[in-house]
Design a protein that fits this description.
GO molecular function: dihydrolipoyl dehydrogenase (NADH) activity; flavin adenine dinucleotide binding
Family: Belongs to the class-I pyridine nucleotide-disulfide oxidoreductase family.
Keywords: FAD, Flavoprotein, NAD, Nucleotide-binding
Number of helices: 16
Number of domains: 3
Distance between the termini: 70 Å
Number of strands: 21
CATH class of the largest domain: Alpha Beta
Helix content: 25-40%
Protein name: Dihydrolipoamide dehydrogenase
Cofactor: FAD
CATH architecture of the largest domain: 3-Layer(bba) Sandwich
CATH superfamily of the largest domain: FAD/NAD(P)-binding domain
Mean pLDDT: 94
Oligomer: single chain
Shape: globular
Strand content: 15-25%
Length: 479
C-alpha cells in the first residue's frame, strides 16, 4: 500500500471540518478531507437544517394566528394547523433528498481533496482510510491532522431500548410522515424543538424529562415559558421522572416510567445527550482511549499528544458543542496550522488572541427554536455566581415595548441581562419570545466586547422595534 503525502488531513466533512479545509487551502496548503457518510455532516442532513425546516412553518402559522388581519384569511380553524406534507417536502429540499453531491462539489471547488471512507489514525501524522470496496488509502500529513468527527447520540441505560427501534435525532428530523404519536426522552434543546415541531405537525407527543425543568442549562424563566407553551399545545410533559424500560408490542411502544406510570406511542425518540464521535478513529495509536473526548488547548491542539500535529475542532472536543462554535474553532485551527507552517508564533493566530477565551468559555451563543424562541449568550445568573462573580440580574417584559406590542397581539416575551457589578459589563443575556433570535447578536457583541454600561447607554435603539428592550433594561438597572 503506497502512501500519499499531503499537508493537512481532516477527519470529518461536517461544517467544522469543511471550514478548516477551506481556510487552509486558501492559505496555500494541500488538504485531504475524509468522510465516511455525507459531505456536509450531521448539521446539514439530520440536525440544524432539517429541524429548522420543520419548525419555521409552524412558527409562522402561530405568529399569523396572533396577528389580526392575517389570521382571518387563514382557514379559520385557529388550531395552528399547517400542510404537513408540504412542510416535509420543503424539508426534503433543504437536505437535498440526502444527496450530498452539491456539498462534495463545493469541497472540490475549494481545491481540497474529498476522500470517501472511514478514516483512522495509524500513528503520528498518519491516517488510513478504509473504503467500501475493501481497499485502503494511506495518507501522511506533513503539517497536521485535524479530528472533526462530531458527535453521536447517547443511548441511556433503559431496559429494552435497543429492541424497540428507538429514533434518534436522525430519524426524528428525517421522518417521511407524521407519526400518530411519539414519546420523546429528554427536555433539552433537541427534545423541546422536536416536541414543538411534531406536535404542531399533528403528532400526539409525550415529553419525559428526568429533571424538574426544561432547558436546565438556561435561565429558569426560559424553561418555564417553553413548558407552558408546550402544554398549551397539548404536549404531555412529564417532569422529574424518566423511562426505566421500553418494549414494543406490534406497532405500539410501551414506556415504563420511574414513577410507576406507563406511556404508549407509535415511536420512541431519544434526545438525551450526545457523545464524541471518536470511536474507531485510532486514538489508541496516539496514547488515548477509543471514544475519548478530545481535550484541546487554545490553539485547538489536542493536549497530551506530543509534536504539535494533532488538532481537534467541533463536537468531538471538550469545548462548546454547537455548529457555529465548531466553525469558530475551525477558523482558529486553520490559522494556527498555517502560522506554524510558516514558523510563526501561533497562539490562536492574531485575530483570535484576545477574544478566544471569552468566545469559547464565557460568551457561547445558543438559540432554541421553540415557540417562544429562546436565545442566550454568556453566563446565566447562577453560572456567573458559581464562577465567583458579583452579579445582578435584570429582566424586562418585551411585550411592554412598542416594538413588542406591534409584533403580535398579546406578545409574551422576557429579556434578561446579567451584569458584573464590579466591571459594570454585561456577562450574560437571555431573550425569550416570538422573533427574538435576531436580537441575540447585539447581546453577543455586548458580552464579547465587554462594553461598559455607560457606553451602552449611547447605543440608541430604533423605534418602534423590540430592540428598545435594551434601553429599558439599562433603565431598570439604574442608568
Amino acid at each position: 500500500m503506497s502512501t500519499q503525502e499531503i499537508d493537512v488531513v481532516v477527519l470529518g466533512a461536517g461544517p467544522a471540518g469543511e471550514n478548516v479545509a477551506d481556510r487552509v487551502v486558501r492559505a496555500g496548503l494541500s488538504v485531504a478531507i475524509v468522510e465516511s457518510e455525507r459531505a456536509g455532516g450531521e448539521c446539514s442532513y439530520w440536525a440544524c437544517i432539517p429541524s429548522k425546516a420543520l419548525l419555521r412553518p409552524v412558527e409562522l402559522r402561530a405568529a399569523a394566528d396572533r396577528m389580526p388581519g392575517v389570521r382571518e384569511v387563514l382557514d379559520g380553524s385557529g388550531d395552528g394547523s399547517v400542510d404537513a406534507d408540504a412542510v416535509l417536502a420543503r424539508r426534503d429540499e433543504f437536505v437535498h433528498h440526502f444527496d450530498d453531491s452539491s456539498q462534495a462539489d463545493w469541497i472540490g471547488s475549494t481545491g481540497a481533496l474529498l476522500v470517501r471512507g472511514r478514516g483512522r489514525l495509524s500513528g503520528e501524522r498518519r491516517v488510513e482510510v478504509d473504503h467500501d470496496d475493501g481497499t485502503t488509502t494511506s495518507l501522511a500529513a506533513t503539517r497536521a491532522v485535524v479530528v472533526a468527527t462530531g458527535s453521536v447520540p447517547t443511548m441511556p441505560p433503559v431496559n429494552g431500548i435497543h429492541d424497540v427501534g428507538a429514533w434518534t435525532n436522525r430519524e426524528a428530523t428525517g421522518a417521511p410522515r407524521v407519526p400518530g404519536s411519539m414519546i420523546i426522552l429528554g427536555g433539552g434543546a433537541v427534545g423541546c424543538e422536536l416536541a414543538t415541531a411534531w406536535r404542531r405537525l399533528g403528532s400526539s407527543v409525550t415529553l419525559v424529562q428526568h429533571g424538574e425543568r426544561l432547558l436546565p442549562t438556561m435561565e429558569p424563566a426560559a424553561g418555564e415559558r417553553v413548558l407552558s407553551s408546550l402544554r398549551d399545545d397539548g404536549v404531555d410533559v412529564r417532569l422529574g421522572t424518566s423511562v426505566s424500560a421500553v418494549r414494543r408490542d406490534g406497532s405500539t411502544v410501551h414506556a415504563t416510567l420511574d414513577d410507576g406510570g406507563e406511556v404508549t406511542a407509535d415511536e420512541f425518540v431519544v434526545a438525551a445527550g450526545r457523545r464524541p464521535g471518536t470511536r474507531g478513529v485510532g486514538l489508541d495509536t496516539v496514547g488515548m482511549r477509543d471514544g475519548d473526548v478530545l481535550p484541546v488547548d487554545d490553539t485547538t491542539l489536542v493536549t497530551g499528544v506530543d509534536g504539535e500535529w494533532l488538532y481537534a475542532v467541533g463536537d468531538c472536543t471538550d469545548r462548546a458543542k454547537l455548529t457555529h462554535m465548531g466553525k469558530y474553532q475551525a477558523r482558529a485551527c486553520a490559522d494556527v496550522i498555517v502560522a506554524r507552517s510558516k514558523g510563526e508564533t501561533a497562539m490562536l493566530g492574531g485575530r483570535y488572541a484576545k477574544t478566544a477565551t471569552t468566545a469559547e468559555r464565557t460568551a457561547v451563543t445558543q438559540v432554541v427554536f421553540t415557540d417562544p424562541q429562546v436565545a442566550a449568550v454568556g453566563l446565566t445568573e447562577r453560572a456567573a455566581r458559581d464562577a465567583g462573580l458579583d452579579v445582578e440580574s435584570v429582566s424586562y417584559d418585551i411585550g411592554s415595548t412598542a416594538g413588542g406590542s406591534l409584533q403580535a397581539d398579546g406578545y409574551s416575551g422576557l429579556a434578561t441581562i446579567v451584569v458584573d457589578r464590579e466591571r459594570r459589563v454585561v456577562v450574560g443575556a437571555t431573550l425569550v419570545g416570538q422573533d427574538v433570535t435576531d436580537m441575540l447578536h447585539a447581546a453577543t457583541v455586548m458580552v464579547v466586547g465587554e462594553v461598559p454600561l455607560e457606553r451602552l447607554w449611547h447605543a440608541v435603539p430604533s423605534f418602534p422595534t423590540m430592540s428598545e428592550v435594551w434601553l429599558r433594561l439599562l433603565e431598570s438597572y439604574g442608568l
